[in-house]
Amino acid sequence: VDIMIPVWAATPSAGIRQAPASDLLSLQGATVALVDDNYDEAFTDELELQLREQYGALVTRLAKPNGSHPSPAALIEQAARCRVAVVGIGM
Amino acid sequence: VLDAVALEKSGIRTVTIVWDTFERAARATARIKGLPGAKFVVTPGRRGAEGVEDQRAKARAAVAEVVRQLLEADPCSPPKTARHAGPSMIETFADSLQIDDYEEAVELFFERGWTDGLPVVLPTRRLVDAMVAGCGRARDESLGPMPPKGGEATIEKLAVNAVMGGCRPEHFPVVLAAIEAMFKPEHNLNGVTQTTHMCVSLAIVNGPIARELKFNSRDGVFGNGFRANGAVGRAIRLAIWNLGGALPGETDKATLSHPGEYTFCIAEEEEDNPWDPLHVERGFAPGSNAVTAFACEAPHSVHCSGVPAEMLYTLTEAVSAHSSNNMLYGGQTLVVLNPLNAEEFARHGWSKNDVRQYLWENARRPLSEILPSIVAHREPVRKAQIEAGRYPFRYDVRNAKTLVPATQRPEDIHIIVAGGRSYFAAVLPGWGAFGGYAATAAIRPPIR
Questions:
Q1: Which end of chain A is more exposed for a tag (fewer CB within 10 A), N or C?
Q2: Residues 23-42 of B with CB under 8 A from A
Q3: CB B293 within 8 A of CB B235
Q4: Does the predicted interface ipTM exceed a cut of 0.85?
Q5: Which residues does residue B335 pair with via DSSP β-bridges, in sequence order?
Q6: Which is more confidently placed, B69 or B156?
């Protein structure tokens, strides 16, 4: 009997080539996108403070409209103008 | 982590900070989205009476690792193995396999993780072809990627899962409409399938097709005994299982979930019902067929009988139940009145909107009753957010007497009529303001 397969034929490894670390040796003066999902604001506040003061990063903080949903394209585009990004933390 | 995937695609080195609760889900999502080397910093999720200082301390503990991973050259540690093997993805692009032994085929579906824990109808090519032909849509048309892992929900793959769930070809257009409704952005199926909350997407069938296909809308509507409800509901769940790969403890983080995760589909009773049915309220033509998806908890029984004042007394208590996500976060809720309840309301001159408005105005609790719950330890955080002008709040945390409504707006209380003519109604609380909202899609007529 010909039994049909219910799952998708995926090739997950044929994926995205991870971004290189570029030539950054430190975050001093580097632009960092901090995508804030609105969970645990105090955590994100402190992280931003540390990145700025301890590591000298130029942080752009972007708040997601809904922490349980991927960011809209416009927010990703804005984040992508920075050298590196930090996302999280709830989901 | 989907943000990290999007940013890495743009060539931006990204570190994802994740609560330990979601670590496995995040790693699995990264792997399946083509980013197995995603960089994670794991931080303890909320525990106990956590305040602002605790959160700040966690951030200080995490920052060095965040910076190290932002600057490091190599991919991070490999993902952990899942507890449940789940639907195993095939390496070839074959769409079928040859098996001649019935018992062996049934067991194979369990071994490969191609079923939800119950046996299935074997999806023979003949049955699947009949399912595809009956819906009149192209075999390779895709409704979109199925959350959370994004397998393509093609007509053919959905047909395979519909056969497995026990559907006949005439049921298949209802399955497709339900999936289309769940794929609407306001339903946020990606979040619904992964949240720690116990909501599951319920499918509510409206229109003449419900009667034609013998959906149960009366006694025991959420129970067993009816092929249409059981098979359509299970087909949807199997599609999410096999195409979405929502695995308990891995991508599906539901703390407890509920039995509706096997099958969760009802029809509204439209004949013994004095009011407009749900899909008509939502803008679809009377006499048309539609499915509405709403992510909710299992039905909570509400003793509901007598005159409107008596019914509203218990309904109000149930809608504003302590500890539900509605009471804590707003969102939407579903009230199921039985036909006798609806008849009594109508006989006393109450429209459905009157009932809805009453519930919205009265299903409230003073903030002082909510604060001692889990929200209490977050109060300082919420206060700080309000002062900083951050995202909109449902109430003023500075006034303990504020009456907090169960939903943001009256229209977020959905009311349908179903069940036997008796003394009980049901409330099915939603996920809160995170999504799972009601979304409706038309059922395309099947080809006969």
A1: N
A2: 25-26, 31-38, 41
A3: no
A4: yes
A5: B415, B427
A6: B156
